[in-house]
Amino acid sequence: MAKTITEYVCQSCGHRAPKWLGKCPECEEWNTLAEETVKTTNSNRKTGNGVVDSKSVQPVTSVEALTQNRLITGIGEFDRTLGGGLVEGSLVLIGGDPGIGKSTLLLQSMGEMAKSGAKVLYVSGEESPAQIKLRADRLGALSDNLLVCSEICIEDV
Fold it and tell me: Lower CB count within 10 Å: N or C terminus of the chain?
């Protein structure tokens, strides 16, 4: 049995949404999203969900390697763990139990980067700027290049 996948496309700005919305979140026009059939799949298949186009699949050995610029954090073991530093434009998720030192590690590394001349933004969803300053002072990470803010909504950063 064939299954049709649809998207809703704003007729004003071209924004795509997986479900119908009364107001386009991109251009904020009302009643401009129109249904569009994206793909018909065979739902009898037991493997995969039909999202990956088989033409885009290729052996990893045929992919051209790119040179990545890395930002050195100034903390040797952390840099080694990251494969030689932070890759520009990347996102690194640091996880662990409460109190294990995640914020301390990040503030130390960001302080080192700021002292070396890089502009660094430290955004915390749990600590106020005043709390961050106290920790930075204790760690010797104070710098005019270290910018701080407290925000829990990533879209507002």
Answer: N
